[in-house]
Amino acid sequence: MTGADLAARITAAIPDAVVAVEESPTDPVVQVRPEVLHAVAAFARQDLGMETLRLITAIDRPPETIDVVWHCLSMPQHRTLTLKTRLPRENPVVATVSDLWDAANWFEREQFDLVGVHFVGHPNLKRLLMPEDWVGHPLRKDYQRPEEYHGIPTARDRVVPVREVAPPMHGPKAAEQDGWMLLNMGPHHPATHGVLNFLLQTDGEIVRKATPDVGYLHRGIEKIAEMNTYAGTMPYTDRVDYLGGMATNQAWAMACERLLGVEVPRRGEFLRVIAVELNRIASHLIGTGSLAMDLGAFTPFVHWLREREYINDLMERICGARLTYTYMRIGGVARDIDRETLDRTLQWLDHFEPMLGEFDRLIGSNEIFVNRLANIAVMPAEAAMSFSLVGPNLRGSGVRWDLRRDEPYSVYPELEFDVPVGRGFRGTVGDAYDRFMVRMLEMQESARILRQAIARIPDGEFRAKVPRVLKPPAREAYGRVEAPRGEAGFYVVSNGTERPERVRIRTGCFTAMPAIESLSPGLMVADIIALIGSLDVIAPEVDR
Amino acid sequence: MLRLIAQRLQSWLNLPGETGAVLPALAVMLGAALLAFVFIAFFAGPVTWWERRVAGRVMSRIGPNRVGPQGVLQWLADGLKSFLKEDIVPAAADRPLFLFAPYLFFGGYMATFVVLPFGAHLVATDLSVGLLYLIAISGLVVVGILMAGWGSNNKWALFGGIRSAAQLVSYEIPSAFSLLAVVLATGTLSMQGIVRAQGGWPWEWLLFRNPLLFGMFFVSFAASLAENNRTPFDLPEGESELVAGYHVEYSGMRFLWFMFAEWGNLWVIASLATVGFLGGWQIPGVRPEVIDQSTGWAFAGWQALSFLVFAGKASMLVLFAIQIRWTLPRLRVDQMMIVCWKYLVPLALLGSAGVLVLVALVPEGSPVDWFLRAVSLGLGLWLIIAYVRKARAAYLADREPYRRLEGKDPWYPPYRLP
Amino acid sequence: MVSALPPAVTPGNPGGVRGWVGHIVRTASSILEGLAVTLSWAFRRPYTIQYPDKVEVPVPETLPEAYRGILEVDLRLCTGCLQCEKTCPIQCISISIEKGEDAVRRLTRFDIDISRCMYCGLCSESCAFDALAHSNQFEAARQDISELTLHFVREPVPVARHKAGEAPPRRPRGEILREVLPGLGPVMSPPARDRRAGQGDPSSGEGKP
């Protein structure tokens, strides 16, 4: 269905709603009047079947307007709808859609925090990433960075000894209500995988409420990208998801290639697939291994780190780095791959595939492990879609949605692989064990993809010729790939210069955080850890 | 000075007798405590190194290997380091409780050594109610943990303390019941009596006396793992949930007391299981009477030999406990309770009742008795063979992919390949 | 390929005594499986190496050609095109070129702040003359962060003007770096480092030209 068709259906339901339509093969955009936004969104949700909200983006366009963009998706129909509205810059107010999609809650808070758009009717419109007493909205174009925050300098050049700084105590000072005990899980806690904070309100061991407190790792990559060139942003995309840098690399490269209209040579696409699938295995190794470690079994984690070390060695040969790959380039990849590396990859796969079985005997089918995960934190498919869960977390709930298959990109259509989904392996569909098992099965599928890709890799160029200075015309593109933690997307708006107007990063973990909040009541403290581990949340992806 | 202390002590405790009489008594007590401490240190210390080495190999790492040959002196280095560290007491802590808790914890553990028979006559005192004493005195540990958890004034520590109290109190029951089976089978509560009721050869052990006692061994072992907060029952510490549980606020030497007792407890678990089920120090083919009647160097030799037998059996069990720790994940709190009340307690009850029936009906040495021994011995052998075969299969499965690499250029660095 | 994982969906546990016994049996057998795996690992060779001092070959020498270590500049090859400075996303390269009285352009400054560098490889890729490249060195921990700004130019050097194919070959990887950043190698406590230096351990990099 094209943008015009969508616009026609919207107009039929709500007259005078549509202002303009932009056609695009992937994401048709319908611009609507801000007053009717909520009605249009409700129509899209209920009648057009858009049960997932991918992303909300606010774009500051001085001197007069702020654009707000909603990316909606219907998984069963394989159809997207991008709603856009234009608000006055002085008073950017628009109705909330958090009553329609659960995921909108945090998206709107983030955009309120960073761009300063007010979403009327939002239940809890507070700052998300920045401290609550921060002044200004960092992603506004005229934002001035303060020199210091409570005595802490914001620039690196001025180094202040730690003792001289008295940082304020952060976090909501929630009272201990109803006899519940307030427990700070984090920011430094062994199970939070990075610097995350959960405010637990517990009744003994039983958690009544877990409120995630994020922003500790907010580095403002979206802002950095606005100040950087298209090619120069590539290294930063590694840091968005430090375990799945290849996928975020590829998402950025794809977004820029769509802006520029660059075609990647076939060998380049195969190299990308090999690198990304290796990276996917590496990331799932950490995901499943650290889940086992969170549940108290240390050995499986170390075994998986060992396997990941082989991948790191391979990555070192492929791209020269072990963690921050920066392998992709706009139009291809940075280096060619040699036969030796491919042979070693195959040798390693021979070793690794039986290891999956060993891991399963060691921990995966261990009765204690199964009982810790089965029937815990069950996420029904409907809720998973409403929370915009992506990747293994969504598939664990039984929804067969994989961008590699459903929005085909690169050379994935030529490769044969299954999309494993949760089937209630040891309990209910969508429980923590299903999410774990989906990751395990995905590693196996990645190994299959790797074997096929290595067998079929063609000769030729690995990188298209692109000009040294990239100046895409003013348009927008949403490049997204299936990253280890679900959809990694870069929504890039260009303005005809060397630097992008706005970069918005969509990560899998950001939407998983509100899901934790909603799944937590009634769980035990130990289950919270299983829940965080099974969703495979890593903090830098949440904060970016 | 010393005399003054003695005087004070005497008047304070309101002891009768000459002042001078207290002083030697005090000295003897101190000396004995020191001796016991050194003795225990040699049990608890090396096992920390041993545990880390085993954990290393299990995780395809090396483990500590720098201090001394193969790192055997690592525990001394660690102890020295902890000793030199600052002892931090949180400002908001309940000071007396916080400061005293480690000593109570350690004391509870040290007191169990009184009745453990390490050899034919190597026992501090052979109480006639030794087993009962052991079960009772190990309850002291829970007071220490609770005090530490409460005194730290930290919610995570409190969680650890409360979990620990619930756990220890619950697991006392299956532990006591499974040991009751031992008492029923041997007819005595004295530790030496239990050992002497068994024999040196495996078919004379209580473990292989009948299939029910064979099962009771595992119940008892699981329950004592839980009593000593070992994985899979390490909920009071649970480093990925409670950070470190009840000892999260401790540092320096006080922290060391906890660790000391924890690893020393490993020996207590193993010794208890050895005494109760594995024939204790009994030397195969040597009747205890032979040892009793020997004199001089022969007597000393028998003592040493029986100690070695005991230590060998106990260290195998320690190894087993260590391996369990590095294999299994942790239970959840409610599951821990379920395992205790729904599985271990009924099993222990049924088992001890069954043992009572068997003891009453099957006289020792009768054909039925031998048949039961053969069955349980077969069961044990089958378990061990299945275990080793599975391990061998896993080993060979990993070897296979590397077989194919023979002759090819190895990966860098070459020493990483198995 | 045979699936290594059991994809079968297990049926729910039956209740009653059968379920109770079944649960015990399943738990015991799965624990036995796990113990067998860990036991087998006790007989396999450890994977880890004892970095930094007990390795057969110093780790930098085992790194592949592609490895992106600390940047180094071969000034004999640098034409002063400033491409690297422009490409760097974090401006950690700063180059000054002055034109002397003899109308020769001289490099007066070529600094790389390797404490800011994120080793992305964009600069070395943009260098058409292979003057700026990643070495295989990475062990450059220092007490003071200012020591990590590498000054490649000691005294002004005229920029290179080679034709394609005539340029002198690059010096071996890491050699230039040793001159600007002495004492490359794994960090040891000060006495240990002195002792190693005294013995002239080849892996410490000291005592080499």
Fraction of residues of chain C in helices?
A: 25-40%
Return the average pLDDT of chain C rounded to an integer.
75
Radius of gyration of chain A: 23 Å
Shape of chain C: elongated
Question: What general outline of chain A do the C-alpha atoms trace?
Answer: globular
Number of helices of chain C: 6
Order of helices and strands of chain C: HHEHEEHEEEHH
Strand content of chain A: 15-25%
Count of DSSP E strands of chain A?
Answer: 17
Into which percentage range does the β-strand content of chain C fall?
A: 5-15%
Number of domains of chain C: 2
Your description of this structure?
The complex is a heterotrimer of chains A (544), B (418) and C (209). The two termini of chain A are 34 Å apart. The longest helix of chain A is centred in the middle third of the chain and has 29 residues, at 266-294. Residues 170-175 of chain A have low confidence and may be disordered. Chain A is 39% helix and 17% strand. In chain A, strand 16 and strand 17 form a beta hairpin. Chain A is α+β, with helices and mostly antiparallel strands and 544 residues long. A five-stranded mixed β-sheet of chain A has the order 1-2-5-4-3. In chain A, strands 10-11-12 form a three-stranded antiparallel β-sheet. Chain B is mainly alpha-helical. Chain B starts with a helix and ends in a 15-residue tail after the last helix. Chain C is of the alpha+beta class. Helix content of chain C is 27%, strand content 13%. Chain C has helices at residues 16-41, 59-62, 83-87, 122-126, 175-180, 190-199; strands at 71-73, 93-99, 105-113, 132-134, 149-151, 157-158. The two termini of chain C are 54 Å apart. Residues 189-209 of chain C have low confidence and may be disordered. The interface between A and C is large, with 49 and 36 residues.
Keywords:
heterotrimer, A: 544 residues, alpha+beta, Beta Polymerase, domain 2, Cytochrome-c3 Hydrogenase, chain B, 2 domains, five-stranded mixed sheet, three-stranded antiparallel sheet, globular, B: 418 residues, disordered C terminus
